[in-house]
């Protein structure tokens, strides 16, 4: 991919796949009245947040480098 995608849904939130899947887990937990599902959903959300904290700087740097190369050409 040449440039970072900035159109919907990325113009609404940075990581829609992580948060969308978390909402699906939350929905299933609520729909099935599952306290365990709620706890697991919170765990997944926390793990995703850590992943985002690790992944975002790397991803930003990849696109920064690509933009730098594109400007040179």
Explain briefly what this protein structure is.
Helix content is 74%, strand content 0%.
Keywords:
73 residues; mainly alpha; 2 helices; 74% helix; 0% strand; elongated
SSE order, one letter for each helix or strand: HH
**Which outline best applies?**
elongated
The span between the termini is 17 Å
Q: Main β-sheet, in a few words?
A: none
The tally of helices reads 2
Average pLDDT works out at 91
Q: Kindly state the number of beta strands.
A: 0
Spans of at least 5 consecutive residues whose pLDDT stays below 50 are none
What structural class is derived from the secondary structure elements? mainly alpha
**Hey, roughly how much beta strand do the residues contain?**
under 5%
| CA gyration radius, whole angstroms | 17 Å
What is the helix fraction of residues, given as a range? over 70%
Characterise the protein shown here.
This protein has 73 residues and is mainly α. The protein has two helices and no strands. α1 (16-31) runs antiparallel to α2. The radius of gyration is 17 Å and the shape is elongated. The two termini are 17 Å apart. The relative contact order is 0.12.
Q: Which secondary structure elements does this structure contain, and how are they paired or packed?
A:
Blueprint: H1 16-31, H2 35-72
Helix pairs in contact: 1-2
